[in-house]
Amino acid sequence: MKIGELAQRTGLAPSRIRFYERIGLLKTVARQANGYRSYPQDAVLALQLIATAQQAGFSLDELRALLPGDLVQWEHGALVGTLHRKVQEIEAQQAQLAQAKAQLLELTAQIEAKPQDMSCAANARRVLSEMRLAQ
Fold first, then answer.
1. Among the three residues 42, 70, 98, which one is the final residue of a domain in this structure?
2. Is 108 exposed, middle or buried (0-12, 13-18, 19+ CB in 10 A)?
């Protein structure tokens, strides 16, 4: 199939498809005599996997290492291991984000607890000194 049909079937822009080809993520591309690219049916699945994996947080370098040249050659154990590691990374990021959120909510509460007769500058000094004491 030509790039326009592949773009339509995957929802990706032709420039994005060419980019994935150029960086080696989309490997099964043939050239016709007129120079047009010709993509196999598997290209739809490969591009859907790439797009889904990127949305799940995989970098292009991770995808390059993960995706085989031919989807039939995919190693089940390696794939499952990589997916488990990505889930662990996401869980670690969630824990870090939860901690950052809690700290920001605490800081917001301290700032909002400004006494009526205190200036903003004095309140900022009060909050900063309390933060230093808490560390």
1. 70
2. exposed
